[in-house]
Structure formats: structure tokens, C-alpha cells
Amino acid sequence: MMEKEANMSSNLTTDGSVEDCFKTYIVLKPTSSYFIDSIFGCIVNIILGVVGTGLNALVICVFWKTPKLRLKVSYFMIMVLSTIDLSVCIIVHPLHVINSIGEITQTAKCGIKMAYQTSAVIFSGASFLTFFIMNCERFLSIVHPFFHLNHVTKHRCLILSFLPWIISVVTGIAPVFDLNIQSFITILALLVIIGTFYIYVCIYIVARKRRNSRERSISAGTDELDFSQDSSRGTTAALQSKKTVSFLHDIQLAKMYLFVVLSSIGLNLPNAVGLAMYADPVKTVDVIVHLKIWTVTLVAMNSTMNCIIFFWSNNRLRKEGWRICKQLFKK
């Protein structure tokens, strides 16, 4: 017993040595502070994995069990994103825990670390880029509604969604072949951020014009519309009302997407800053090694936050989700 305690004490006060693993590293001898950080990191990743798996699975279930939602391209894309995010929750979070346990017990393997690193890049990258495609779909729906109506379909969106997978897979396996594609990743991220900013500026301008136009129309023609007996005028008013409801629904989805954009930027920013500030190879357990536990966890956490925002911001998803949960609990 005394010998085991001595070994544990030794494990917690080692020199914090690391070993190169392709373009990354594994911790061979953790320091006491890294041991504590890793324990908390495991707890957080387990919670995120469980919560994210349940919520993303619920989003997918809501889509397939609700006929009205299955007809809409926007909800189809939410389902596609939730499928990718579900993969993050059932693969990346468990691999983080397995890798951390290996480092804590000084049995870490480069293969496990590479599986964790590669899956984190592939699935999180696919999620990030797929969401950008979703923003483009909202842009077309609001700014170019006729083009969206005639050309944007679920099938075409699904085909386009394969592009993020190709980019993410290439990015994820690049370190295995000793390829440095950091410049490509930086340029791509900047293009996505600039493109997203442009999309929401355009959406804001269109929404403001539509609101002002609607206010002028109401103030100028309310009396005439209310007291006219002409049937064609009533039909026109009904069609206009339907278009307005559809437009407001599109704007509501765009606002929900904007919350996801802000959340994604906030959760990905620490990792981006860390990569920019600490580009040199890791030689010992230093600041960047401690930060990596949490920056990569935040990136993966984005997959749980997405579905939380979806349910919080969208009344239709929330109601259908509660309905399905009640059915499950009754069984």
C-alpha cells in the first residue's frame, strides 16, 4: 500500500515531459496541475457528450417525426448540422476522455491522440462549414426569395454539404502526412467570417426595407382595405399576409442562426488565438498544453450549444421536442 501511494505521489510531481506525435504531442509525465486540469476536463467533456448526444438526437428525431418540418429546406439543413454535431458528441468527447486518462496514468498512446486530434478537426470543421452553408441558404431565402424558391432544394443542399466534409477530412489528415496547411485554414476561416458578416448585413438591410414598406402600406391603406367589399382585393390582402408571415418566419430563423454564429465565434476564438500565439513545437507541459485541454473542449462544445440555441430560439422545434419527450416518458 505504501508503495502504491509513493508511486501516485511520484506521478503527480513529475517533470511534465512530452513526446512528439506527428504535428502534435502526448504528455508522458503529467505535472500535478496538469493532472487536476485533466480531471476537470474529463468531467466537462463527459457532461457535454451526454447532453449534446441527447439534444442533437432529439433535433433529428423531431425533424423525421414532424411532416411539416420535413418539407422545409431550412429544417432539413438543421437536421444535417445536428447529425454532424451528434458525431462530435459521440466521438470527439469520448476520445478526449480516453486520451486524458492515458496521460494521467502515463499510458498515453500517439495513435489515440491522433485519433482524437483528427476527429476533432474533421467533425468540428464539418460542423463549422456546414453552418456557413446554412447561412447562405438563409441569405438566398430572404434576399433572393424567387431564386431560393426555384433552385434551392434539399437534394442540392445535401450535395453541397459534402464539400465541408472533403475540406475537413483533408485538413484533419494533413498532419499525418506532415503537411502544413495552417495558411489555408486561416484564409478559409477569414473568408467564412467575412462571408457571414456580408450575409447578415444584407439580411438586416432587406428586413429593414420590408418593415418600413409594411408600415407605410398599413398607414396609407388600412381604411381602404378594411372597408372594401371587392373580393379580389381581399384575396390580394390574404396573399400579402401569407407572404408577410413567411418572411417573418425566415427572419426568425435568421436571428436564431445569428445567435449560433456569435456562439461559434466565441467558442472557436480561444483556440484560434492559442494557435497563433503558441506556434512552436511543445517541449514540456507548459501554458499551451494546459490551454489545449479547454480550447479544444470549447470547440467541441459548439456542437452542444448549437442544439441548445435551436430549441431556445425556435418555438416550433421546442414544442415538437417536448411532445416527443412526453411520448417517450409515457412509454
Chain-averaged pLDDT: 83
In total, how many domains does the architecture comprise? 1
Largest sheet: 2 strands, antiparallel
Principal-axis shape:
globular
Number of beta-strand segments: 2
Distance between the termini: 49 Å
List the helices and strands and how they pair.
Elements: H1 2-12, E1 18-21, E2 24-27, H2 32-65, H3 67-70, H4 73-104, H5 110-143, H6 145-151, H7 154-160, H8 162-173, H9 182-227, H10 231-277, H11 287-313, H12 315-330
Would you write up a description of this structure?
With 331 residues, this protein is an all-alpha fold. The chain contains twelve helices and two strands, in the order αββααααααααααα. Helix 2 crosses helix 12 (315-330), helix 4 runs antiparallel to helix 5 (110-143) and helix 9 runs antiparallel to helix 10. The protein is globular and about 75 Å long. It starts with a helix and ends with a helix.
